[in-house]
Amino acid sequence: MAANKKQKKQKKEKIWSRATTSQNAQAGEEHATPEGNKDVDMNDPGSDLETSDDEPPTAKKRRHKKRKRDDWANVIMQNFANKKGAEIKNELQSATPDFSKIETGFREANSAIQKVNEEHGVSPLRNIIPEAEYAIYRISYDAWVALAKSALDESDPEKGWGAYDRLRKITHLFNHQNHLPADWNFPPELAKWQFGERPDHLKEPSDLDTDSAFENSDESESD
């Protein structure tokens, strides 16, 4: 019985990586970006904070690189953020996010980038954010819903808040990597509605912890 319980817990803890792996596999390595740039691997966004019964939680230091884009793509993405910024923020911070609105915005931005890519004679996949990547909002949210339900069933608010912290971290990393607004993220009310206030002993993560992973990205190239 103890072994079965342990396996069940570990299976739930790995839901983040399972949820994203199937989507990112569709993207492959085709989407080209400016020379010398390698995108952040989002295949296993929750692995840094996975836990087991045998070892305490640890946060492994992982360095991430911001996506490099051509100037014309930067202009398009800035216009996209200005035009859709409030709408996307409101959806992510609502009780029932409509991810189809968010994903439609990304598809429109990608189409605009591909049109200009053609004018410059470069690959249509250059500079875009593939669907398998911007779907991270929906995929991570679905994983959160599953883990939150498990935490409610077990009357475990600490587990619920931990799942929320991972959701926010994954979203923050994606936004930072792609130069997107920091407030395109899920609010703490998402956890409060179901689990009450954050437990006093559970420290609230700082976005600065993830920001620092980007500040050293140039150094990692020479490691």
Number of strands: 0
Mean residue pLDDT: 76
Order of helices and strands: HHHHHHHHHH
Structural class: mainly alpha
Describe, in plain words, how this protein is organized in 3D.
The chain has 223 residues and is an all-alpha fold. It has a domain at 71-195. The chain is 59% helix and 0% strand. The chain is built from 10 helices and no strands. Helix 2 (15-27) runs antiparallel to helix 6, helix 6 runs antiparallel to helix 7 (157-177) and helix 7 packs antiparallel against helix 8. The model is unreliable at 18-61 and 208-223 (pLDDT under 50).
Fold blueprint:
Elements: H1 2-13, H2 15-27, H3 71-92, H4 99-119, H5 131-134, H6 136-153, H7 157-177, H8 189-195, H9 207-215, H10 217-220
Brief digest:
This protein is mainly alpha-helical.
Defining traits:
mainly alpha, 223 residues, disordered C terminus, elongated
